[in-house]
Every structure is written in structure tokens, then in C-alpha cells.
Design brief:
globular; three-stranded antiparallel sheet; 238 residues; 8 strands; mainly alpha; 10 helices
Length: 238
């Protein structure tokens, strides 16, 4: 059975910002559909491409799985509390929750960036096609994802088909945002707990600096388990 792909259209940050801003202001799904269609007209002339973008935006921010509704509501609150740069972290986390394809692609990129400064599009393509198959839909989604990441300012292409992380990673300062993205990681990785060091150096967060300590974690939300002398495992409270 072929794995679902889905992320097949370039998505811009101001489009994601729009969705997060308009959800609390819209009484019905139809109202939000109409607002989104009108908003996207300025960016995307073609009807089909515009509908593809709208579908992706709705899946990321509105049609959220029931298991993640609490994270969506928290994310909507955080959008008004964090800095403009930190908002990218929220969109990043919501996109990982919505699209496993996006999560797998950035994970492969993050692992490659740990080994080398530049990563070729061909390297990324080979890694993702090994997971999703060598088909046209996968190629389109790889291209759409990389184009989106460049538009978000987290990677740059100084040489043809070569990707680099931007020189300054985005530092996550908000303690509430640190805890939110930590929970997102637990969900997208489908684990019960992770070593505290894993949060700080996770491939999925390669464009960001997450300086997370156990002191940052609310006890009613997270459970810290010591294993051995040095290892501390962090999971969610039951």
C-alpha cells in the first residue's frame, strides 16, 4: 500500500498566519473556506493550485485530528504571545502533525545536515523515494516542500540544487512554546518518552535552537524519569 503524501503545493508563511488568525473569527467552515479562497487569490491565480493550497492549509490548521485538538487550541493562543520568528515553530509543529510526509522529509534533511553543511536535492529525493516510492506525486511533494522551506527562510540555495541551513537558527525563547513543541515531538515520533538531550538536538528541529531543561517543564504536563546516573527521560503525564 502506497504511503500518503499530500503536501504538494508551495505554502507561504503569511498564508499560514492568515489561517491561524481567521479560525477564531469564523463561525462556520464554509465562511472560513470563502475567506481563504479570497485571500489566496492574491498569491495564486490558478483555481486548481489555489484549491490545493487551501486543502493543505485547512489540514494543517483547521481539520486537525481529535488527538491533537488541544495542541491546536494551545497553538492558536501562542500565536499572539510569541515573536514573529517563533511563529514559524508553531507552523512547523502543526505541519508535522498534519503531514507525516513533511515530518519524514525534514527528518531526513536534519540527519543529513548533521553530517554535512550542504545537502543536495538529489540526496533528499533518494531518501524520500526510498520511503514513499519513485512516483511523480512524490517528486512534486518534495519540490513543494523544499520551495516552502526556502520561502519560510529556514534553508537557502546558494548553489544550484544545494540546500543549506540559514546562518542564524531561530532561537525558541518562550517557555510555553518550548513545552508545546516538546509535546509535538512526542506525538509525531509516536513514543512514550525521549531523553532530554534528544529534544535539544533533534533532526526534526534542525532550523531551531531548543534549549530545553527539566526546569522548563510543568510537572502536571510532563513526567521526568531518571534512568541511571545521567539519563533523564521526558514523557507526558498520563
Amino acid at each position: 500500500m502506497k504511503k500518503a503524501v499530500g503536501f504538494d503545493q508551495k505554502i507561504l508563511l503569511h498564508q499560514l498566519d492568515f489561517m491561524a488568525r481567521e479560525i477564531p473569527r469564523s463561525e462556520t467552515r464554509q465562511e472560513l473556506y470563502e475567506k481563504a479562497d479570497e485571500f489566496l487569490t492574491a498569491d495564486i491565480a490558478g483555481y486548481k493550485s489555489r484549491m490545493n493550497a487551501r486543502t493543505i492549509l485547512f489540514k494543517i490548521w483547521y481539520l486537525v485530528d481529535d488527538d491533537y485538538k488541544h495542541l491546536q487550541q494551545e497553538a492558536l493562543r501562542l500565536m499572539d504571545e510569541v515573536s514573529q520568528k517563533e511563529r514559524i515553530v508553531i507552523h512547523w509543529g502543526m505541519t508535522m502533525l498534519a503531514y507525516p510526509f513533511f515530518k519524514d522529509l525534514i527528518n531526513e534533511m536534519g540527519m543529513l545536515f548533521k553530517l554535512q553543511q550542504e545537502v543536495s536535492s538529489d540526496q533528499i529525493s533518494r531518501k524520500i523515494k526510498a520511503l514513499y516510492g519513485d512516483r511523480r506525486r512524490v517528486e512534486v511533494s518534495i519540490s513543494a516542500s523544499l520551495t516552502s522551506l526556502r520561502a519560510w527562510g529556514v534553508i537557502v540555495t546558494e548553489k544550484r540544487n544545494m540546500q543549506e541551513i540559514t546562518k542564524e537558527k531561530i532561537s525558541i525563547q518562550s517557555n510555553a512554546l518550548k513545552q508545546w513543541i516538546a509535546e509535538v515531538l512526542i506525538h509525531v515520533l509516536s513514543v512514550d518518552a525521549l531523553p532530554i538531550e534528544y529534544y535539544r538536538n533533534n533532526s526534526l528541529l534542525f532550523p531551531f535552537n531548543l534549549d530545553l531543561s527539566t526546569d522548563d517543564l510543568e510537572k502536571q504536563r510532563f513526567n521526568v524519569i531518571r534512568q541511571g546516573v545521567d539519563m533523564r527521560m521526558v514523557g507526558l503525564q498520563k
